[in-house]
Amino acid sequence: MATKEPAEIAHAAVATGVKKADLRWDKTLVGSFLAGAYIAFGGLVAISVSSGLDTKTWGSLPTLFTGAAFTLGLVLVLIAGSHLLTGNMLLVPIGAMQGRLTWRDIATNFTLVLIGNVAGAVFVAFFLAVQTGVIGHVGSDAGTSGAMTYDRLAAIAQAKGVHESNWQIFLRAVGCNWLVCLAVWISLAADNVSGKILAIFFPIMAFVAMGFDHVVANMFFLPAAIFAGVPGLGWDDTLRNWALAFVGNLVGAVVFVATSYWYLYLRDEPSEEKPRELT
Questions:
Q1: Which of 33, 38, 56, 251 is most buried (CB neighbours < 10 A)?
Q2: Which residues of the chain carry a pLDDT beneath 70?
Q3: Contacts by 91-94, CB closer than 8 A, 24 or more apart
């Protein structure tokens, strides 16, 4: 299996970030909608396979099942091709660090991708999770699949939207996107689909199993819980979580992955392209 060395991954990351930032706005929006939907699919299947498992019997294994199933989301994002905000937090800034993009390029890309990701995730949450009955609702008959998925979603959403403090959300988001961006980074090393999937699996499984906060995943979990009627959870809780998770995810991507690997492998190398003026 052909693989890239770390320095080659760094150059591939810059080239990928530049390509994403230069994409036409409408294509960026469509690709971002797809990525939001793909992450939501990962969240939906994760809830489905881990619901109804009594912790007295299974212990912490349901979190492992949740994480393993959730990896579907990033596999679809990276293999099928789309634009995910948390991955772009690595790829686009590292292009700017290398003088290939401007800060305006970063802001424009992040804004478009954020809009698309929210739309895709909320679409799946409302129509394909709740309206289909895959996720149950308040009053679902006990013991049915709908009741079990509802209980599982409620536990996840209330933990993230109500019980975590601001500091906890931020720190969990830092850890989350450190791992997510490592998954993106390692996947760039592989030149075939099986290698990319293997690279994605372990970091994504780890962040979900540890209960870290991914802003786009929470664009699915929290709205789906509201649509399903989970008590004590509102849009104010959701927006608080999204804002703090966004900032933490950005720090995890830029500080611990983009800047670190730019410093290690690119800082002392001139850009292959004529640099743009950073504005």
A1: 38
A2: 1-2, 140-143, 270-279
A3: 91/13, 91/16, 91/17, 91/20, 91/184, 92/17, 92/20, 92/21, 93/17, 93/253, 93/254, 93/258, 94/10, 94/13, 94/14, 94/17, 94/258, 94/261, 94/262, 94/266
Cα angle 44-127-66, degrees, rounded to a multiple of 5: 5
6-265 belongs to CATH 1.10.10.10: no
* pLDDT one-digit tens code per residue, 83-95: 999 999 999 999 9
Between CA 44 and CA 129 the distance in angstroms is 7
Q: Give the bridge partners for 3, in sequence order.
A: 190
Q: Which residues pair with 190 in a beta bridge?
A: 3
Site of tokens 């634009």: 83
List of residues 6+ apart from 212 with CB closer than 8 A: 172, 173, 175, 176, 179
CB 156 within 8 A of CB 47: yes
Cβ neighbours of 186 (radius 10 Å): 20
